[in-house]
Amino acid sequence: MNVTLGLLAHVDAGKTTFAERLLYHSGSIRKAGRVDHRDTFLDSHEIERARGITVFSQEACFELGEKTFFLLDTPGHTDFVSETERGVKVMDYAVLIISCVEGIQSHTETLWKLLDKHKIPVFIFLNKSDRNGAEPERVLNHIKRKFSENAVLFDSCENIVENKSLLEELAQRDEVLLENYFSDSCTEELVLKRTAQMIKERKVFPCFVGSALQDIGIDCFIKALETFALGNNKENEDFSASVYKVRYDGKGTRMTYLKIRSGSIKVKEEIIPGVKINEMYICHGEKLIPASKAVCGGLYAVTGPGELVCGDEIEKGRVTKSPYEFYPMLSAGLEFDKSKCSDKTMMGYLNILQAEEPMLMALREESTRQITVRVMGEIQLEVLKFVLKQRFNIDVDFGECKILYLETIKNPVVGRGHFEPLRHYAEVHLRLVPTERGSGISFSSQCSLEVLEKSFQNLVRTHVFEKVHKGVLTGSPITDIEFVLLTGRTHLKHTEGGDFREAVYRAIRQGLRKAESVLLEPWYSFEIEADSGFTGRIMSDIQRMYGSFLPPETEGNNVIIKGEAPVESFRSYPKELMSFTSGRAVISLRFCGYKECHNTEEVVEKIGYNADRDTENTADSVFCSHGAGYAVKWNEADSHMHCVSSD
């Protein structure tokens, strides 16, 4: 029986130390390492040990009784939340570690909402109970208030029928247990079985108190894990899997990391039609253990399927994409010695890293030769700088982090693109339809196969997704648009695959030029807790920074203010708040999506993008007459098109 177990925590909550104790007590490692000794089993990367934080997700495995646990340790810093999100999607259970001293922090809330969104059952470990200032009861009450009233303290996992307070808590949440409780007929077997089911269904969130560093409470937690974690029972179903990570090893071999959701697959079998698995491994820290078969519920690293990327879902031989919630809000320019490394070489390095971290989205601006990357924050830039030096021996610096704007459209339009220089031919008509905020880019087809055969329609789809298309206001990436293929045309002799790339790009660009564009900016949701005497000042600040807030809530002498505000105006506010409250306020910020920009004209003017001068992203079409190609401006091209489609 296999179980995928994830570890999550805010930075400095003690997650790495907890992982060491868990692996040690289960017999998986011989010695429990310490972060301050820089000898931990999982945080083995040089930069992780230097900074004392988890940067890269990593796997281990251990056994408890008849269950095999595949452990997935995730980063705890907000800059790496996208990697954490990819990990959460493949977890059967999660362990959320919260400090008894600091309690629930801003990123803890983000992690809880992520677990809640994906309906992951959660065990909670209240760590650092030995520290000065530890208040486990206060933290537990806070968890009940902010996360779930179904957080239940487990002070023991044995003889629960004799533990009246715990038994009452469990019986209140299950009709079968409640009925047996009142009839005084609860058996230990029944209680354990019903409790395991309630945990699986997220009706109970078991909480444990202890100290990983002092090895307190770990035995109780491990007993609960062995008793209550239920394995996957889909081993006899058709094969399905999720790609949650991609890495390149020291030899440049691409490793694709899979969670097997159902069925099984062997080495040399096809994971999708035409793509075989060459090698297969179980990961245990830095050690790769060869395996011949990947079975349901486990995590495996495989070589061979280079076409698969993070977020791919494989089922019945087909691949679909899984959407993400967390996207970078910042971009930074890359600075390096171009006499030692060409732009092309640097983009090659970044493309390798982008396969591992899809949110990096490296771009090169042809006109300025500026390479930019998208990141969550400053720490990610430090890690990226370190990785480029370590893996590719290239020194880089980064410019100032800037807000990453996006663009979309307000109204549906039809974009048309024609590419017909001599001995080339392709025409594509796409309807651009605005979709709900946060939906990203999507594609569908209304084109008959009699008009454009399936292989060419697939080419159109590929070219829609293969690059980040620029908007026409600021040159920022576009989002929240569905591209609907209406019609297209090929030439029996002259059409080549690249012709459709040109036609699709021009159709998209022409549609954007026709539409009413909208500039989007990232927003935070925030929660501020401060002395009630600062209420007026805080509300005034929020309004000054173009934010909004709900009616304030009062708790004793404190006020709690929740709301939303643009990242651009609000990202420096935590420092300002700490200053005028003398450090006695608490603020949590969480990216809550993109909204229409509050100062569009100012941003457009500042960026100074000119769509007409962006020849690398032209909206004009190319036609052929008397054996020579000629360009037609985008606003005149519709009347020259060979296909017919209405707006």
Features:
647 residues, seven-stranded mixed beta sheet, alpha+beta, seven-stranded antiparallel beta sheet
Strand content: 25-35%
Overall shape: it is globular
Q: So how many helices?
A: 17
Low-confidence region ranges: none
In order across it, which strands form the biggest sheet?
Answer: 2-3-1-4-5-7-6
Question: What is the CA-based Rg, rounded?
Answer: 27 Å
Task: Quickly give the structural class.
Answer: alpha+beta
Please render the helix and strand layout as text.
Elements: E1 2-9, H1 15-25, H2 46-51, E2 58-64, E3 67-73, H3 81-88, E4 93-99, H4 106-117, E5 122-127, H5 136-146, E6 151-153, H6 164-171, H7 175-182, H8 188-200, E7 205-209, H9 218-228, E8 240-248, E9 254-262, E10 264-266, E11 270-272, E12 275-276, E13 279-284, E14 287-290, E15 293-295, E16 299-303, E17 312-315, E18 318-321, E19 330-336, H10 343-356, E20 363-365, E21 370-375, H11 378-392, E22 396-398, E23 402-403, E24 406-409, E25 413-419, E26 426-434, E27 441-445, H12 454-465, E28 481-489, H13 497-514, E29 517-531, H14 535-544, E30 548-549, E31 553-555, E32 558-566, H15 567-570, H16 573-580, E33 586-596, H17 600-607, E34 621-625, E35 628-632
Parallel strand pairs: 1-3, 1-4, 4-5, 5-7, 6-7, 27-28
Antiparallel strand pairs: 2-3, 8-9, 8-17, 9-16, 10-15, 11-12, 13-14, 13-16, 17-18, 19-21, 19-22, 19-23, 20-21, 24-29, 25-26, 26-28, 29-32, 29-33, 30-32, 31-32, 34-35
Helix pairs in contact: 6-7, 12-13
